[in-house]
Amino acid sequence: MEISIRRAKPGDMDALAALWNGLMLHHVKLYGRDKRAENHEFRKDAESIWRKWALKNIRSQNGLVLIAEDGGRPVGYSLSLIKPNIPVFRIRKLGHMSDLYIRPGYRGKGIGTRFRDAAFRWFRKKGIRHASIAVHALNPASWKIYRKWGFSDYHMEMRRRL
């Protein structure tokens, strides 16, 4: 198995959307019947919206979309972007790793680490010195990996139904 990682192109949108759907299904399975599951209910046009957002990041100077392939077969993707921080803080911009998904049969093979390394190199090249990543509350496996990568807890978002 020789995994290659490259920048995604607009022509990769169908493959990227299939991977994104895998990520969303993974989150649905994590939440199951948990009361927080309603926070992860999708609009009917969710994939269309995501496609536009991903394409915007593929084309943007402030976006980095990567795709991992095994013999030309898409097996994972990551979407990173540069975003402004809340203006009261000294850190003005953050490199944010928004999406990171690897098909189940390819996990534990270092692909996520390669995505991280590529994103960090790109952030540094863009003058970004701080990175953030989001992890869902019911995803301890990812939490553990991100801590191993040097991320620490910073902000916990809480939600409730009104």
- Rg, rounded, reads 16 Å
Q: Report the β-strand fraction as a percent range.
A: 15-25%
Mean pLDDT: 92
Straight-line distance between termini: 50 Å
CATH architecture field: 3-Layer(aba) Sandwich
User: Which structural class do the helices and strands define?
Assistant: alpha+beta
Query: What fold name goes in the CATH topology slot?
Result: Aminopeptidase
Fraction of helical residues: 25-40%
Work out the number of β strands: 5
* Structural domain count: 1
- What is the CATH H-level superfamily? Gcn5-related N-acetyltransferase (GNAT)
The low-confidence parts are: none
**What's the total helix number?**
4
Major β-sheet annotation:
5 strands, mixed
N-to-C order of helices and strands: EHHEEEHEH
What is the class in the CATH system? Alpha Beta
